[in-house]
Each structure stands twice: as structure tokens, then as C-alpha cells.
Amino acid sequence: MSSQDIPEENLPAEQATDEAHGAVAVKGEHDNPFADPGLPEHEHRIQDIDERAAKRSERVVAMLFTISMLATIGFIAAYLAIPVDKSIYVFPIGHISAMNFTLGLTLGVALFCIGAGAVHWARTLMSDVEVAQDRHPIEAEPETKAQVLSDFADGARESQLGRRKLIRNTMFGALALVPLSGVFLLGGLGPAPGTKLRHTAWKKGLKLVNMNTNLPLRPSDIAVGSLTFAKPEGLSEDAEDFQTVMAKAALMLVRIAPENIKDKRELAWSHEGIVAYSKICTHVGCPISLYEQQTHHVLCPCHQSTFDLSDGARVIFGPAGHALPQLHIGVNSEGYLEALSDFDEPVGPAFWERG
Amino acid sequence: MSTTTNATKVSNDAPSRGTAPAGERIADWADGRLGIYSLAKTNMRKIFPDHWSFMLGEVCLYSFIIIILTGVYLTLFFHPSMNEVTYHGPYVPLQGQRMSEAFNSTMHISFDVRGGLLIRQIHHWAALVFLAGMFVHMMRVFFTGAFRKPREVNWLFGFLLFVLGMFTGFTGYSLPDDLLSGTGVRFMEGAILSVPVVGTYLSFFLFGGQFPGGDFVARFYSIHVLLLPGIMLGLVVGHLILVVYHKHTQFAGPGKTNNNVVGMPLLPVYMAKAGGFFFLVFGVIAVVAAIASINPIWAMGPYRPDQVSTGAQPDWYMGFSEGLIRTMPGWEINVAGHTLVLGVFIPLVIFPLVLVAIAVYPFIESWVTGDKREHHILDRPRNAPTRTAFGAAWISWYFVLLVGGGNDLWATHFHLSINAITWFVRVGFFVVPVLVFIATKRICLGLQRRDKDKVLHGRESGTIKRLPHGEFIEVHEPLDQEALHTLTAHEQYTPVEIGPLVDENGVERKATRSQKLRARLSKGYYGENNQIPKPTVEEYKEITSGHGHH
């Protein structure tokens, strides 16, 4: 991969500009019309030759700094005077927090004017004569390199590292092993997954509870064309693990005319056309929330995976890799919808052990 | 005798030190301990060249400082905890709702702390400016060839800053634990789960168990405020030290060579300009934060794994990864009780590869050219057509993915079919960069031809002249020497040849595969039709002396 084999003459010649250091004009030298003419002569600004213009610049800079001071005083006044919950109407933004608007504007003006003043000062009053400074190669001189290499060789020899193999090998061994302690300490970050991703809170006999009303659902509550979200009975929003349980157990229910259900198992696991599917997308786990009544398609709003709920929730568009898991439901003796088992496959995104 | 002399000397010295101005005495004190005079000797009047594009890096530096300042303020009020609490604050629509302490304290910052919302919004806006600034700064360095020796390491520092900036941003906007960011974290969990063999373990170790659990906000917090910014601060310092050590690059022009740097001194011009520019950037961001709301978490509500809003989008810099994940077909392979989630895992692998493609480019180019010299004169993009075309192709690739990441927004705003957009991105992922590469290269070559014309025939003056025999011509004004020099200052490589495959003794030699590849690439870079030979002095003289105006 080295480029040792590239002859020097293959590289473009450096421009013949070395003689043009600084402001030495070499017009016509070597009769080369493309030669570097050297730094152009400095052109004076109006402020360099007209003291009145310079004074004007000075006043502009001072005015900017003064505006900044006033803006800071305004900031402090706004901070002290404006109630934190006051809202004002600002065209064309609309109703916004008065505090945020005033503090932001005054702070912005205070800062901006300092910057504008400094830049104006630099551009109009400070010297704008361009100066050339030499560069020096980054690489060290050969003598320096030779010195360093010999110093290193001395140091290495004096350490006897190369000669005493036993020390060297055991040291490398010790240094290689000691980070393992750190790796093992990271083991405390989490429990092993076990089979947790295979099970949800659903089990036989758990009633389906309406997410919004917190009441157990009856078949009559599920109207054709509606999308109902449910959670397992006994799961309170105040429960400490509510979020983690819901991340797997979230359920959606729709009612489809039984003759329109194309998938046999789907029909068998439904009740009077009511089918229950996991709400967690099998792509990367967003909750699915858009339902198209006519086609019985549901769409995940995150990445647009689309599932056909009338055909085993198979994927009909988008990046999801497999159908939504269905929950086997029925009706208990009191007439409430209940789960007849847990999901028979893991819900949510696929993973290595899913199989 | 000697003692007296010494004593006199001391007494002679002492008053002169004592009468020095206070500033000088402080400087003397510091010099005796820190050696500041030697440091100032090389740096105080250091020359920096001037060009508008050189301030892009400054925008990044200043927004980084603003982020640190405002971030420290936010830590004083933010509670990185996922304990569930009930909201009792002043924002009526959320009163009585269950939410994590993280969300609750962010509500507190936004509604109860005076100026808290402003600092939050400055923090978030500055983060967007920081990322956008780094992106554009990187493009500036790329298209002008500023990454060439001796600056390759600094290019990598900058690249790392860009990548770390993305993840710092992601962990940062996930902290409030709102519905939008929680959805983003869920997406990340799904992506991690797709990793073969260890994915499930990685996820459980990151979240301290099952998603979302009760740990990730605290863990993201320490990553966001300590781990990543600490590394980035080190990289920024290293980046700046190298900028000073290498001295800044400059564009070709009269008096500017590879061995000098032409511009104005740090003290006073750049102290005032660069120092003032910090205040300009801060001021503009403060005004933006005053008038433009960003990440209004109260409108989205606290995170619930069973709820989502439409139009869920990451911050823009993560958009291209979103595009990858949205447009990838949902491939899944089930073998022997295991699942290979290619539909998610392939995007997860391409995500870093998109970034690495641009990161390694400097090393590919230096291998192709075999050039080991230092380069301090910047290229005009047109004079490096293949590099420019590659960069443009990469940007187009990035933007195709960005379109994919917002396919729902494109569909609703422009009344397009989301399926059509997705298919456009799937095809465009492969096709658009190629088309852009070809088009850019042609444009560059056209511009090179125009430069050549300008050098040889002068610039069009707009004056029409009638010749004695009735012909009308437009008078071309010859360029002055400064312009001639600037337009011909660029270097042109000749393609690398493999060389004769039979040496002088008739022994055959096999060209290695890498040699062949390099010869082909080099031809593609510098061969015929891949660059326009710049005008020679002979051509110029023949045209200008011979027939006058053409």
C-alpha cells in the first residue's frame, strides 16, 4: 500500500513561487506571465486616511456597546418584573411566554451588540495590513529524528525489557488481564434476559380492561370500525412496573365481520369477529395507533409498517419483518372478554433468540 | 568584595522591577511559573488567513461553549430519575397526570424557573447549530482538500466530534422522558435487539432489564453530561492545538505560497473578530430561542410505551439513520431456533458505514496520489473534480436518506404517496449518488474549461467592436498577473502507471491487485478527460502575442 514506487516526476511540480516570499514583486521574472506577483499593495480604507470617518466608526462601536449595556439592564428588569406565567401575543408567532420572549431578546441583543461592536472595530479601525509568516515543515529534521531514535534505543536498552523476557511476558499478561475486572463489573448493569421477552402479563382468564375507562370490556363495547386499546385486568397505572408491563402487554381490539376474516387461525382465536392483536409493532416496537376501517389495515406511525388485521395481521407494507402476534380471546361466564392464554410468540421487535 | 557587588546588583534590580506597571509585574510573576512569554512570542501575533468559510469551524466551537454553559445551568434543576410522580404544576392540561421525575423537572424548568425555558431552548438550538455547523465545516474541509497532509489526524478528530455530537444530542433529547423521545429510545432498543447473538443482552444491560425499566434516564444522563462531553472537550482542545500548530490553510493568490501564511495577526484583529464572533453566535441563538419554540415537551406529554404521536421524528442529524430503518425491506431469517433480523440489523450496520465512507476518504486519496508532501494551499472544488464529485455524491446519499427519514412528512406536505416515496428512496439510495457523481464531475470540468478560457483569452468585456471588414467581435480583456497566477496556481497530478511488467533483464513481474486498483483509480482521478490540463505559458504566449484578441 506504500507509494514508494511512485517516481517523483509523477508528482506535479511545485509552483515556481518560492521567490515570491513576502511582497517582493517578481513581475515578468523568467518571463512567466503566471508567476506569483507577490502580495498586492495595501489599499487604505477610508478610516485610514480620513480621521472623521475613523471617528464615525468609533462612535458606531461605542453605540453598539452602549446598546448592549441597555439590553442587559432590560434583561434584569424583565427578569424581576414579568410574572413567570404571563403569556403575550406576538405577531406572527402567536401566544408565547412573555418571560421567555423578553429575556431572550434582551440577552440576544446584549450579546449580539458586543460581537457587532468588536467586529466593526476590527474591520474599520484595527490595521488591516496583510502580513506573511513563514511555515516550517511539521516533520523533524533528520538530526532530531536520529537523536530521538538513539535516545529511545538507550532507554529501551537500560530498561532491559528486551533482554528479560520473563518480565516482559508476565507484564503483558498482567496488563491484558486487569481490564477484565472492569468488564465483569459492568455485569451489574442488567440481569440476563432469560425468557422475559417471550412472556407478557396476559394469561388465561385475565379480563380485557379498556385503556380509557378502566372498565372490563364486553363484546358489545367493541363497535365495527372502532379501534379499542386494552390492558390486562389488575394492572394499575400507579403500579411501579406499569410502563414495563405495558411495553409488552398493550393490546388493540377491532371487530371485523367473521366472513371477512381470511385467516383460519385468526377466526378461531376471535370472538364474534372481535380480534385482539399486540399493539407493539414487530419492527422496532412503536405502538401502532392508526386504523383504516374500510380495509382493516393498521399503520405504525413511526416507520409506516402496515398490517392487515383481516388476514392474520400479516405485513403488507413497510419495514416490519413479521405479523403482529394475536391474543386468543373468548368470553367468560359473566360475559366479559377474557384472554384464553398468553401470546404464543414474543411480542414486539424480533431478536436473536426469538426463533 | 564580591558580596558587595552582588548586593549592589540586587538593590539595582529591585527598584526597576518595582516600578514596572502592575500588568507587567503580574505577567512577570506568571512567566516565572508558566513560561508565558515564550508562549506569547510564537502565538500572540500569529497570522490567520481570512476567508468567510473559515468561520464555520468557529461557529461549532462557540456553540459547543454555549451548550456547556447552558447545560451546566440545566443540571442544577433537572432530576435524572424515572420515579413516577403526579404533576401538580401550573400547566393545566397535564395536571394530575403520572410522569417520571425527569419529565416533571423538565416541566418545572420550562414553566416555574425564571428564564429556565430560555436556557433550555438555547441549549437545544445551540445543539442543532453545533451539529449543522460541524456538518458544513466538514464539507468545507472536504471540498477544499484541507484534510490532506499534515491534517489527516485533525480530520479524524473532527469526524469523531461529529459522531460523538450526534450521540450526545440523542442522549440529551431523550432525557426529558417525553412521548417523542421515549419513542426514539424504544426504536433504539428495537435496533439493539436486532444485533445477532448478543443483541438481547446488550439491550438488557443498557436498560437494566426490560424496556423501559427505571434506569435509562439516569444512565443516559451520565453519558450525556459527563462521558461524551468529556471526550469531546478533549478532542476540541486537541483539534485547536493542531490548528495552531499546523497554521491555517489558505487559498491560492498573489503572495500566498505553500510555505507561508498570509493574513492578519491574532492580536488584535482576530482577538476582536473571533472573540466578537462568539458573541454574535450566542446573540443569534438567544434571539432564536426567544422566538422559536423547540422540543415543547408539554405538548407531547410524558412517555408511555403504549402511546405515540404521528409525525414522530428524531432531531435532523439522526434523520438519515431513520431513513435507513424506514426504507429497508423487512427481511427476517429464521434458522435453527434463531432469528436474524436483517431488516433492522442491515440499517444498523450501514449507519456507521455511511459515516465511515467520508471519514476514510483522505486516506484513500493520499494512497491514490501517492503524494507525501505537505499541503497548505486549498483547492478550489472544481480543480479536484473526482473528489468534489465524491463529496457531492455522499451528500446526495445523505439527503436521500434524510428524505426517507421524513417520508411521512413529505407525503402529507406534498400530497405524495408514502409508498412511492419509500420506493424512491430504496432506488435512490443506489442511483442518486451515481447520477450526482457524474453530474458534479461534468460541472467541475466545465468550470475548469471556463477558467482556462479566461486565462488564455481574457474576460468578456461586453464591448462589441466592428472590424474593418465588417465582422463583429466582443473585446476580451486580458487578466492581470494576479488573476492569471490565481487561476493557474493549482497542481495537476499525472496518473500513476503500473510501469513495465518486464524488467530490463526480461524477467516478468506481476502487478499486484492493489497496484492495478490504484492505477485504475488514478486514471479515473487524473487521466485524460478527468481533468482539463491547465494552460501553459507557451499556449498563453502564442495566443496573446500572435493574433491579439481572438
Automatic annotation (TrEMBL), chain A:
<dbReference type="InterPro" id="IPR045603">
    <property type="entry name" value="QcrA_N"/>
</dbReference>
<comment type="function">
    <text>Iron-sulfur subunit of the cytochrome bc1 complex, an essential component of the respiratory electron transport chain required for ATP synthesis. The bc1 complex catalyzes the oxidation of menaquinol and the reduction of cytochrome c in the respiratory chain. The bc1 complex operates through a Q-cycle mechanism that couples electron transfer to generation of the proton gradient that drives ATP synthesis.</text>
</comment>
<keyword id="KW-0001">2Fe-2S</keyword>
<dbReference type="Pfam" id="PF00355">
    <property type="entry name" value="Rieske"/>
</dbReference>
<keyword id="KW-0813">Transport</keyword>
<keyword id="KW-0560">Oxidoreductase</keyword>
<keyword id="KW-0408">Iron</keyword>
<keyword id="KW-0472">Membrane</keyword>
<feature type="region of interest" description="Disordered">
    <location>
        <begin position="1"/>
        <end position="41"/>
    </location>
</feature>
<dbReference type="Pfam" id="PF19297">
    <property type="entry name" value="QcrA_N"/>
</dbReference>
<dbReference type="InterPro" id="IPR036922">
    <property type="entry name" value="Rieske_2Fe-2S_sf"/>
</dbReference>
<feature type="transmembrane region" description="Helical">
    <location>
        <begin position="60"/>
        <end position="82"/>
    </location>
</feature>
<keyword id="KW-1015">Disulfide bond</keyword>
<protein>
    <recommendedName>
        <fullName>Cytochrome bc1 complex Rieske iron-sulfur subunit</fullName>
    </recommendedName>
</protein>
<keyword id="KW-1003">Cell membrane</keyword>
<feature type="transmembrane region" description="Helical">
    <location>
        <begin position="102"/>
        <end position="122"/>
    </location>
</feature>
<feature type="compositionally biased region" description="Basic and acidic residues">
    <location>
        <begin position="27"/>
        <end position="41"/>
    </location>
</feature>
<dbReference type="InterPro" id="IPR014349">
    <property type="entry name" value="Rieske_Fe-S_prot"/>
</dbReference>
<comment type="similarity">
    <text>Belongs to the Rieske iron-sulfur protein family.</text>
</comment>
<keyword id="KW-0479">Metal-binding</keyword>
<feature type="domain" description="Rieske">
    <location>
        <begin position="248"/>
        <end position="338"/>
    </location>
</feature>
<dbReference type="InterPro" id="IPR017941">
    <property type="entry name" value="Rieske_2Fe-2S"/>
</dbReference>
Automatic annotation (TrEMBL), chain B:
<feature type="region of interest" description="Disordered">
    <location>
        <begin position="1"/>
        <end position="22"/>
    </location>
</feature>
<dbReference type="InterPro" id="IPR027387">
    <property type="entry name" value="Cytb/b6-like_sf"/>
</dbReference>
<feature type="transmembrane region" description="Helical">
    <location>
        <begin position="416"/>
        <end position="439"/>
    </location>
</feature>
<feature type="transmembrane region" description="Helical">
    <location>
        <begin position="122"/>
        <end position="143"/>
    </location>
</feature>
<feature type="domain" description="Cytochrome b/b6 N-terminal region profile">
    <location>
        <begin position="26"/>
        <end position="252"/>
    </location>
</feature>
<keyword id="KW-0812">Transmembrane</keyword>
<dbReference type="InterPro" id="IPR005797">
    <property type="entry name" value="Cyt_b/b6_N"/>
</dbReference>
<feature type="transmembrane region" description="Helical">
    <location>
        <begin position="384"/>
        <end position="404"/>
    </location>
</feature>
<feature type="transmembrane region" description="Helical">
    <location>
        <begin position="155"/>
        <end position="175"/>
    </location>
</feature>
<feature type="transmembrane region" description="Helical">
    <location>
        <begin position="274"/>
        <end position="294"/>
    </location>
</feature>
<keyword id="KW-1133">Transmembrane helix</keyword>
<feature type="transmembrane region" description="Helical">
    <location>
        <begin position="54"/>
        <end position="78"/>
    </location>
</feature>
<dbReference type="Pfam" id="PF13631">
    <property type="entry name" value="Cytochrom_B_N_2"/>
</dbReference>
<feature type="transmembrane region" description="Helical">
    <location>
        <begin position="220"/>
        <end position="245"/>
    </location>
</feature>
<protein>
    <recommendedName>
        <fullName>Cytochrome bc1 complex cytochrome b subunit</fullName>
        <ecNumber>7.1.1.8</ecNumber>
    </recommendedName>
</protein>
<keyword id="KW-0472">Membrane</keyword>
<feature type="transmembrane region" description="Helical">
    <location>
        <begin position="187"/>
        <end position="208"/>
    </location>
</feature>
<dbReference type="InterPro" id="IPR016174">
    <property type="entry name" value="Di-haem_cyt_TM"/>
</dbReference>
<feature type="transmembrane region" description="Helical">
    <location>
        <begin position="340"/>
        <end position="364"/>
    </location>
</feature>
<feature type="compositionally biased region" description="Polar residues">
    <location>
        <begin position="1"/>
        <end position="14"/>
    </location>
</feature>
